[in-house]
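Me: I'm a chemist; would you kindly supply a protein sequence with its structure tokens?

Assistant:
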Amino acid sequence: MKKVLKNVSFVILLLKVCIMFGQETAKQKRIIIDVGHGGKDSGAIGINKIQEKDVVLDIALEILSLNKQSKTPLNIYLTRYSDTPISLSDRSKLAKVLNADVFISLHCNHSNNPNARGIEVYVFNEKSQYSENSIWLAFELQASFKRQLGFESRGVKFANFQVLRETLDYFPAVLLELGFLSNRDENNYFSNLNNIRLSALSILLIIQNY
């Protein structure tokens, strides 16, 4: 049975963010958003030729924009702000230099099966002092996309991705696969600017509550 992604009101989600931003926090955490791929590395290519590197950059820039509009903005940094290639090792090095409190790597998925769909969130497959916080963050992210936007959850998974491996002992880190560009519904979803904003808001809500 075809699952329809929710047509959520941007205003409703924005109101939630504004309420949360109105609450004073004792310490603003330093958030690193790792924007996947870039330059000649397009990442996944969608049915209508949209590219993973562009989708995740659009979402990351929207997170920055929404954050700046708040009364008490968080300290959010991106690993890239334009269509530039950044090596995996440089991404983790940057997060360490900035003394991150949390690291979120943004990606989109692809499969040879056009029916594959949903959100996946990865944490590193070995334990560290930050494992519990990473797992909590991963569950919150996949739950938010399922609850707020209607995406299927493919669960929290464990993997040996380089950016997770190299940040294991420094701060909580997750890698977020935002849906399948090889799936027609999800490809079309991320081709819509309003849905880019909704995705950014959903991530920002979780970051603010972290």
